[in-house]
Amino acid sequence: MQLVIQLLTALIPTILIELGVLWFLLERRKKVLLSSIAVNVLTNVPLNLYVLLVGDSMVEILIAEVIVFLVEAVWYWFFTRSLRQALIYGFLCNAISFLLGMLVQLLYNLLT
């Protein structure tokens, strides 16, 4: 049960952040926004399982984030049919959610 809570604690904010990024980028197509939720479930859960159960070094996390970016860029390309837009969506969604997650962890560590 604790593992499920940890996964949801990472997944839900990531979905909300990435939907916010897409909304900020003026993406309003329902299929793209809903696909963002799906791709986050498909990438975030395995990434966090790996970090929690196998390895959590910064190098491993960064390599995994690059892989997630590539997967999401291909995913967004499928829905947008624009390579430029897909790369922007994949990069900004992942960079912003990763950096906000790191900020939250740093603030939590400072306050506890």
Count every helix, treating DSSP H or I runs of 4 or more residues as helices: 4
Mean pLDDT: 95
Helical percent range? Answer: over 70%
Span between N and C termini? Answer: 24 Å
Provide the β-strand percentage band: under 5%
How many E-type strands? 0
Rg for CA atoms: 14 Å
Give the CA-based shape.
globular
N-to-C order of helices and strands: HHHH
Mind describing the biggest β-sheet?
Answer: none
Given as residue ranges, the uncertain stretches (5+ residues, pLDDT < 50) are none
What is the SS-derived class?
mainly alpha
Written account of the structure:
The protein is mostly helical and 112 residues long. The chain has four helices and no strands. The relative contact order is 0.14.
Essential attributes:
globular, 112 residues, single chain, 4 helices, 88% helix, mainly alpha
State the gist of this model:
This protein has 112 residues and is an all-alpha fold. The protein has 4 helices and no strands. Helices cover 88% and strands 0% of the residues.
List the topology elements.
Blueprint: H1 2-24, H2 30-53, H3 58-80, H4 83-111
